[in-house]
Design brief:
YpeA/RimI_acetyltransf; 8-stranded mixed sheet; alpha+beta; GNAT family N-acetyltransferase; single chain; 4-stranded antiparallel sheet; 12 strands; Aminopeptidase; 2 domains; transferase; 274 residues; elongated
């Protein structure tokens, strides 16, 4: 039994272990290796600060960390923890985390965060035993938009360079993969919704996976939320909206109003280590 850094593990071996560990996950996950290479690169995964467990030369468990300065703290985001089925029940995740937390602290990491499906009680208990506490609740949605608004709107597509991040709100409510630092590393399209010659709202969309990564109002006009989703529907009727913070009541209200089905609920958990 040996814990090592994942920069010592060939990428294909890591992915094979990852896919086996998530084979019976709550949600169907992509199996394309290139998808993970792109996603983890955008999220700023650091394999030198990610860890695995070897038993008899086989990788049987892992914790994959993205590392970045977010909201003033050097943070490690757990973008994937897993143990392959034959080795579960042996406390492997806890052993890896005990090692990882000390090593992350030694490398100046101030905070660790992760996301976990609320129904995954076993994983939540493991994280709590490692010192993590629930700090946010998220809801996820996927499906068709049912919108009745027929107001006159225009969509303005802008480049990543011309999008005005200074004019956006609630950035601290987004989860790691949908924060600015991750979005700008991936292939997203940026749209403004214009009504009565005013930039009224915006959304950021990925055509490949149908993610609406961010959306919000720029002007709190009557029926502006409906016009925002009217604009989203012009681009795609079927969308995925992941990790809407449950404190954002207006967002949840409009998502329910346009009848996009709920998929899962998640927690964000955090551990302050420095």
């Amino acid at each position: 039994m040996k814990i090592l850094r994942l920069n010592k593990v060939p990428f294909d071996e890591l992915i094979d272990c990852f896919l086996l560990a998530f084979k019976e996950y709550h949600l169907e996950i992509p199996t394309d290796k290139m998808y993970y290479q792109k996603r983890w690169s955008a999220a700023k995964v650091d394999y030198n600060l990610s860890y695995g467990m070897l038993i008899n030369g086989q990788l049987v468990g892992f914790i994959i960390h993205a590392i970045d300065n977010r909201f003033g703290k050097k943070t490690a985001f757990n973008t994937g923890t897993g143990v392959i089925p034959d080795f579960r029940g042996n406390g492997i995740s806890k052993l890896i985390y005990d090692y990882a937390i000390n090593d992350l602290r030694n490398h100046g990491i101030e905070k660790c965060i992760l996301e976990v499906i609320q129904e995954n009680k076993n994983a939540i208990k493991i994280y709590q035993r490692s010192g993590f506490k629930i700090c946010k609740e998220y809801q996820c949605f996927s499906g068709n938009i049912n919108i009745k608004s027929r107001d006159e709107i225009n969509l303005k597509k802008v480049s990543k360079e011309d999008f005005n991040w200074d004019n956006t709100f609630n950035q601290e409510f987004y989860s790691w993969d949908f924060q600015k630092e991750t979005i700008i590393e991936r292939n997203y399209d940026y749209y403004y919704v214009i009504h009565d010659n005013q930039l009224e709202s915006y959304f950021i969309y990925n055509e490949e996976n149908k993610y609406v990564a961010q959306f919000d109002l720029l002007a709190d006009n009557n029926n502006a939320w409906e016009r925002l989703f009217q604009g989203i529907k012009l681009i795609s009727n079927n969308v995925k909206i992941v990790n809407v913070d449950t404190r954002l009541l207006e967002k949840l209200e409009i998502i329910n109003k346009v009848e996009i089905p709920t998929t899962v609920n998640q927690y964000e958990m955090k551990l302050e280590i420095n």
